[in-house]
Amino acid sequence: MSGEDRRPKGGEPREPQTGSDGRERSVRADGNGDERGSTDSDVEAAIRENHPALITYVCAGDPSLEATKEYVEALDRGGADLIELGLPFSEPIAEGPTIQASINRALAAGTTPEGFFELVDRLETDAPLLVMTYYNMVLQYGPAADVRPFVERAAEVGLSGIIVPDLPAEEADPLRDACDAHGLDLVFIVAPTTEGDRLEAIMSQASGFVYVQARLGTTGARADVSSATHDGLARLAAYDDIPRAVGFGVSEGDHAAEIVEAGADGVIVGSALVDIVAEHGADGDAPAADALEAKARELKDGAVRGDADGDRAPEPEHP
């Protein structure tokens, strides 16, 4: 953590490029208008350059936006390579009880989309930031039902990507186009049951990384790593031009090690961190921030331990 915000701002448009597998993927153009390749995605670069990556989640506004600032910067110091910030929504269908409770606390504290964006604008992190929220929040942000104002504001404050759990890939073209226009990644979740045409649709739309759901059901810390994790990574092995990160249930350094050993490029941890916020939040910002920093360090160390060969994620091939 350098004490200043080193995150690149969004805003550079992307153009479609066909990868080595024949699928089109959006890439960002440089200042001269030349295509720079998908690894110039801030999100993808953070994973490949810090492989294996630690991706963390906290809900903005729990227990307050000021506390969230301390928590995010603590995770950054602890070794998080990407940080997801939840923008609270009243019907979080993908979340388990832990994150639902966090979202409820954030809403009760008065967290709004504009308050969220102002927080992001004030954050000082090395790790790129993503927003995780639900489609209605994206669609209804502007004066009319349109995803573009939300994406424009996200890029303006320095977010690097968007995760929308309830948006089917088949209906994602408007958001995909808006993200391309502003240089943001659009991350999709691949469930253990996703296959066939639906998997192809997701992989054709995804950028930054693919969020591999470790088990069926909602989010929440678990005591072990599901066998579905190994199956999911194996099913995505052919899609080697985009990193794969595993979430849902990861809570310990040993979990991170096992997941990376199974072939993941990164691990995603949310509920275990939200539990820390719930446990220590009433004690003031400092105890929770210290505990979050220590937990991030444990998880990052575990991920690195699982990468026995110390290899970085391979760079994708482009024609």
How would the blueprint of this fold be written?
Blueprint: E1 14-18, E2 24-28, H1 42-49, E3 53-59, H2 65-78, E4 82-86, H3 97-108, H4 113-122, E5 129-132, H5 135-139, H6 148-157, E6 161-163, H7 173-182, E7 185-190, H8 196-205, E8 210-213, H9 227-235, E9 244-247, H10 253-261, E10 266-269, H11 271-280, H12 285-306
Parallel strand pairs: 3-4, 3-10, 4-5, 5-6, 6-7, 7-8, 8-9, 9-10
Antiparallel strand pairs: 1-2
Helix pairs in contact: 2-4, 2-12, 4-6, 6-7, 10-12, 11-12
Description:
This protein is of the alpha/beta class and 319 residues long. The protein has one domain (39-306): TIM Barrel (Alpha-Beta Barrel). It contains twelve helices and ten strands. The strands form two sheets. The chain has an eight-stranded parallel beta barrel, surrounded by nine helices. A two-stranded antiparallel sheet has the order 1-2. The longest helix has 22 residues, at 285-306. The termini are far apart. Mean pLDDT is 85; it is low at 17-39 and 217-223.
Outline:
It is built from twelve helices and ten strands. It has 319 residues and is of the alpha/beta class.
Mean pLDDT: 85
Oligomeric state of this protein: single chain
The structural class is alpha/beta
CATH topology: TIM Barrel
CATH architecture: Alpha-Beta Barrel
Distance between the termini: 37 Å
Largest sheet, order of strands side by side?
3-4-5-6-7-8-9-10
The CATH superfamily is: Aldolase class I
Q: How many beta-strand elements? A: 10
Rg computed from alpha carbons, rounded to a whole number of angstroms: 18 Å
Tally of separate helices = 12
Identify the overall geometry: globular
Beta-strand content bin = 5-15%
Organism: Natrarchaeobius chitinivorans
Protein name: Tryptophan synthase alpha chain
Function: The alpha subunit is responsible for the aldol cleavage of indoleglycerol phosphate to indole and glyceraldehyde 3-phosphate.
GO molecular function: tryptophan synthase activity
